[in-house]
Amino acid sequence: MRLERVSVEVPTRAPGGRTAAYVVGSASGLLVDPAAADERIERRLGEVDHVAVTHHHPDHLDRVAAYAAAADAMVWCRYGRAGDFERATGVEPDRTFREGTTIPVDDGGVVVRETPGHTPEHVGFELGANGDDNGDRRLLVGDLAVAEGSVTVSSPEGDMRAYLTSLRRVRAMGFDMLYPAHGPAIDDPASTCDRLISHRLSRERRVLSAVEAGNRTVDALLDAAYEKDLTGVRDLAGMTVRAHLDKLHHERRVRWDGSRADPA
Predict the structure, then answer these.
(1) pLDDT tens digits, residue range 153-166?
(2) Quick one: three-class SS letters along 174-234?
(3) What's the CATH code of the domain at 102?
(4) pLDDT, average across residues 69-81
(5) Domain that holds residue 70
């Protein structure tokens, strides 16, 4: 099944300032994450019958309305999130999907894989699940994974427990390639998932140790739990610390009321 990656410049705080849109298929195709106008996408609109996004962040969906209209394409969104999707895109979805839904593409299909955590509605799109990709299994992963660095999981929207579960699930599914929205393709999905899980658990241990050492506010925890310069990203790091504290509170390892953390 044909896959074309189109990296476009968008207003985003992701490294590189770009988001990758993907056009899947060549006859009855699927356009994923059309983040900005690009002539390479526009050349393919005659082959696009479906439009969908991995999640509702602005740097993934700016051209959903325009390209769906130009292609007269069916617009899909996550089941139970139609209202959020319409508010984000300005388009009422035609269809909804959930785990295991097959979007018909060419003579096969693209299968939806739920991967919440970065956002509640986050999904991936699997190519090759129906044996139509020469045995290769590929997953468009949105903001679940990156080849280098890490993914922001920001409270209250992000859920660290769900994010780690999604990484473990994708690892266990044995994909051959992952295609993220930011940065290059990932040709070793297992080791990348392991690295991202290890990074998050390492940060969690630092946050827990910082709480146990007497730090109580997010600002104090940032200074204690991060060894790097946070200039320009301190707000994002703070929301990630909150997501770690939400997880630790749920597991009864700390007490966290949204402003103060205490040992459990």
Answers:
(1) 999 999 999 999 99
(2) CCCEEEECCCCCECCHHHHHHHHHHHHHHHHHHHHHHHHCCCCCHHHHHHHHCCCCCCCCH
(3) 3.60.15.10
(4) 98
(5) 3-187
| Single pTM value for the model | 0.94
Going by C-alpha positions, the residue among 132, 222, 151, 141 that lies closest to residue 185 is 141
- Give the C-alpha separation, 170 to 143, whole Å: 13
Q: Quote the mean pLDDT of the chain.
A: 94
Distance between CA atoms of 244 and 232, rounded to whole angstroms? 20
Would you give the distance in Å from CA 210 to the centre of its chain? 28
SS3 assignment, position 244: helix
Per the CB < 8 A criterion, the answer to whether 71 and 44 are in contact is: no
Question: How far apart (Å, rounded) are the C-alpha atoms in residues 3 and 48?
Answer: 12
Cα–chain-centroid distance for residue 248? 22
What is the tens place of the pLDDT at every residue in 101-112? 999 999 889 999
Give the chain's end-to-end CA distance (angstroms, integer).
51
Residue 135 buriedness (CB in 10 A; 0-12 / 13-18 / 19+): exposed
Choose one of 187, 211, 241: the last residue of a domain. Answer: 187
CB distance 129 to 48 below 8 Å: no
Q: What is the pLDDT at residue 191?
A: 98
- Quick check: is 257 in a domain? yes
Output the six-digit token pair for 15.
């490294």
**In the numeric block, which tokens belong to residue 187?**
């040709």
Burial class (CB in 10 A: 0-12, 13-18, 19+), 59: buried
CATH number, domain containing residue 211: 1.10.10
Question: Which residue spans within the chain are E strands per DSSP?
Answer: 3-9, 18-24, 29-32, 48-52, 74-78, 95-97, 102-105, 108-114, 123-127, 138-142, 177-180, 254-256, 261-263
